[in-house]
Amino acid sequence: MPRRARMYLPGYPYHIFQRGNNREPCFVERENYQFYLDLWQECVERYGVAVHAYCLMTNHVHFLVTPAQPDSISRVTRVVGSRYAYYFNQRYNRTGTLWEGRHKSSLVQDDRYFLVCSRYIELNPVVASLVVKPEAYRWSSYMANAWGRDSNLVHHDEYLSLGKDKTSRSHAYRELFRDRLADGDVHLIEEANRYCQPVGDERFRRQIEQKYGIKLGQASRGRPRNKG
Description:
By secondary structure, this protein is of the alpha+beta class. The chain has a single domain, classed as Alpha-Beta Plaits (2-Layer Sandwich).
């Protein structure tokens, strides 16, 4: 019996993360990355998902998206994941699963953490020491958000609030990357990602729970605990 699709709150952004099985590469050449993005382009239009930021790493992917319907994200990730796995297995004469289970997701507090989460996603190649600056990495949304490069995939209202025109918005977005992300914000996003908890403060969590009558996990704030 197929697993029930997860339900998401329409109109709210989510940080989506999916890793390759056993942390093995999901992308090994340029064509793979492009094929995967083309699948996303096709599916977000079909199922109603707005993409705000993304980054394709060698063995995992990050997306910041907003669904139009409760099942929009589930349908997109299911179709993209299965079609890409079939393509990858056929191309490289392999068998078996490509992904490490289903994607993980975290509801994002849009007025406070939306742009923080965008920066976290687009800085992944820098943190991984693949590039020195985010604009040097081809497979992320940074060039669309920070330099106004045309993209049929990336859209969001929060970005529009950064300036009155494309030039001013791009400049304001680049300015956000002058400072490193706060350790507490990185910890919050990573803990939320690990346990599918919301990226937000306690007040946001309570508001969502009361408004929709659902129970959300609670992510801890602050620096990681000392394990020594």
